[in-house]
Write a structure and sequence with these properties.
Blueprint lengths: L3 H12 L11 E5 L5 H8 L4 E5 L3 H13 L6 E4 L2 E2 L4 E7 L8 E2 L5 E8 L1 H8 L6 E4 L5 H11 L8
Parallel strand pairs: 1-2, 1-8, 2-3, 4-7
Antiparallel strand pairs: 5-6, 5-7
Length: 160
């Protein structure tokens, strides 16, 4: 069976190059790393390090597998957490028929508990004082994340 969502992601990232191509020697924060497609793309484009943030356990294992198959273990920090407004745990809903549409604090679907950390705690955990590039696709955490960032940090550039 063909995974059309996965095929679409690959086409968008690797063919259309929606994330651009200038990652040489940059540290990339990949929030919502999914199954590692964007993480691999950043590495293949020359990123010196990628912190892949993904709370869904099945996807974390897929990322770990892909990193190993491509021998990128020394350039990837795999962080199995969700970004949130506080450190702790939260309910995470996954939709068995569409796990790529999973998100925090839902009211339907299967529920698991995942670890949550703030953006500042994430940077502390990975040991980075600065991030060169951040890709954010976290199925609903964007508003809370950017609200926190804009009150605490001064981004060098906006979204594009």
């Amino acid at each position: 069976m063909i995974d059309f969502f996965f095929s679409s992601c690959l086409h968008e990232i690797f063919i259309h190059k929606t994330y651009g191509e200038k990652y040489q020697n940059l540290r990339v924060l990949d929030i919502g790393a999914h199954k590692g497609e964007s993480t691999l793309y950043f590495l293949l484009q020359g990123a010196k390090a990628v912190a892949a943030v993904e709370p869904f356990p099945d996807f974390v294992e897929k990322i770990r597998e892909r990193i190993g198959q491509n021998h990128f273990q020394d350039r990837v920090l795999l962080i199995p957490v969700a970004i949130g407004g506080k450190n702790g745990t939260a309910g995470f809903t996954y939709l068995p028929d569409a796990p790529e549409c999973s998100f925090l604090n839902p009211e339907q679907g299967g529920r698991i508990q995942v670890r949550t950390i703030t953006f500042d705690a994430l940077l502390s955990e990975i040991g980075w004082e600065e991030v060169d590039v951040a890709k954010v696709d976290c199925e609903g955490c964007e508003y809370e994340l950017f609200s926190m960032l804009l009150t605490r940090h001064s981004p060098k550039s906006g979204c594009g």
